[in-house]
Automatic annotation (TrEMBL):
It comes from the Bacteria. It comes from Georgenia subflava. The chain crosses the membrane at residues 20-44, 56-75, 95-121, 127-147, 168-188, 194-212, 219-239, 251-272. This is CPBP family intramembrane metalloprotease. Residues 134-231 form the CAAX prenyl protease 2/Lysostaphin resistance protein A-like domain.
Length: 310
């Protein structure tokens, strides 16, 4: 008779201590994005053409996905879906709600800024061209940044941290790791002048995304939040695919990003009702409810889970 520990990966012990697994995945993610940036510079110089953007996005999506899958299955000995990857219509709902936690307050803040005359915006493109750019950015940001980064940080790293500490503390810890990751990338590619600005921005974003991830229980909510934030910022501030004139960049950032960061977690609480766990560690020894509801369990699955809880 097969012992449940060998038949069900969620009841097996990880192959190495938590800190080593976090270092491997965190350092691996940094190496992946640095390698992509370096290779892109070799192939396309410093220009961020559409071809380079697409190549970078696909590389990050595939390599970061493989990193998490391999680490979760071989090092953690757990199913990848237990990182918070809800499925089907639930995943679509979580993604849309996550995007709305950023878009709703940002739209209100932007409307107030425009109405009060603090900000003027001019888009030098037709409606069709603007819609095309928005759709393009949604795809690029999802593949290059939102999904792979959330899978690594609010998925793998956050879930592993919650096995050893209170979830609220895990949010802060993963935010520090994400801030170090993102700031390092920007310092390497843009110099030390961006250090403080990027450190604060990445930490703040990661805290809010972590709160949304905790409240919803789903990675997709954090992906939606990340996606909305990056699409709007790149559309209005980068000038790469759309010519946009802003009277005051800082006023735009405050009216949208700062307002959204300050209120997104509260809005998430309205979208996902319930009593989220902020204080108790969540041992990774049984199949989480989010995963159990995403697929049908066989009788042997249920029996193995019950045995692992004894």
């Amino acid at each position: 008779m097969t012992h449940p520990r060998s038949a069900h990966p969620w009841s097996s012990r990880p192959r190495m201590p938590l800190i080593l697994r976090l270092v491997i995945v965190g350092a691996g993610a940094l190496v992946i994005w640095l390698a992509i940036a370096s290779l892109g510079t070799v192939l396309w110089d410093e220009e961020m053409s559409l071809a380079r953007h697409l190549a970078n996005a696909l590389s990050a999506f595939v390599l970061a996905g493989l990193l998490v899958v391999v680490a979760r299955k071989l090092l953690d000995r757990r199913p990848v879906a237990t990182l918070g990857l809800t499925r089907g219509l639930v995943a679509v709902r979580d993604l849309l709600y996550g995007a709305l936690t950023w878009l709703l307050p940002a739209a209100v803040g932007l409307g107030v800024a425009l109405g009060a005359g603090w900000l003027q915006i001019e888009i030098n493109a037709t409606v069709a061209e603007t819609i095309g750019v928005v759709l393009l950015l949604i795809v690029l940001v999802f593949v290059y940044e939102a999904f792979p980064e959330e899978l690594v940080f609010r998925g793998y790293i956050y879930r592993n941290l919650t096995t050893a500490m209170a979830p609220w503390l895990a949010i802060l810890a993963q935010a520090l790791i994400f801030a170090a990751f993102g700031t390092t990338l920007w310092v390497v590619t843009h110099g030390w002048g961006v250090l403080l600005e990027r450190l604060v921005m990445f930490f703040g974003m990661a805290v809010v995304a972590g709160c949304i991830r905790l409240i919803s229980g789903s990675i997709w909510s954090a992906v939606g939040f990340h996606l909305a934030f990056q699409v709007v910022m790149q559309m209005f501030l980068s000038g790469q695919y759309l010519e946009v004139s802003l009277s005051d960049d800082r006023a735009f950032i405050v009216a949208t990003a700062v307002v959204a960061f300050a209120t997104a977690a509260t809005i998430a609480g309205a979208f996902w009702r319930g009593q989220p766990n902020w204080t108790r560690p969540e041992p990774d020894t049984a199949l989480p409810a989010a995963h159990a509801t995403s697929r049908r369990l066989s009788k042997s699955d249920v029996a193995a889970v019950r045995r692992s809880r004894r």
